[in-house]
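Give me the 3D structure for NUDIX domain-containing protein.
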Amino acid sequence: MEYIDLNGNLCKLSFEPGIFSVESRHVLVICKYSGKWVLTKHKTRGLEFPGGKVEPRESLAQAAVREVYEETGAVIGKLEWLAEYMVFSDQPFCKTVFIAETERLEAIALMETEGIVLSEQLLLDDSYSFLMKDKGMKEIIKKVMQHGKWDD
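Predicted structure for NUDIX domain-containing protein (152 residues):
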């Protein structure tokens, strides 16, 4: 699926692995805890799913676990690959999307975000990051819901 993101960049989304020629070095993790969406409050962008860049010598899965913990204090267990999308910006990049099971929450010192927000619904109002509002993210959320992981 192709779409234009809210920054005006061409993006391609795939629910099939290995489609893009650029190696994914970014992660996005969609998870729930006690029936609520696990979000992080970015200091400038607003509410969004946790994620970020893969560090040197780190796998995508390791980055996913680390980013969720650093941004929310959530400890995740089982990760499942869901999708990848390619953003054709000045410096094109590929991001891998995972779904994950949240085992527990821990209180941690936060640096990058204002911490965890647990939400029963994804309202996508002005409190949410622009990253949550483009066509690709809507398709990803739709796919997560169809996946049937969280029929609460």
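The domain at 2-120+129-146 is CATH 3.90.79.10 (Nucleoside Triphosphate Pyrophosphohydrolase). Let me know if you want a second pass.
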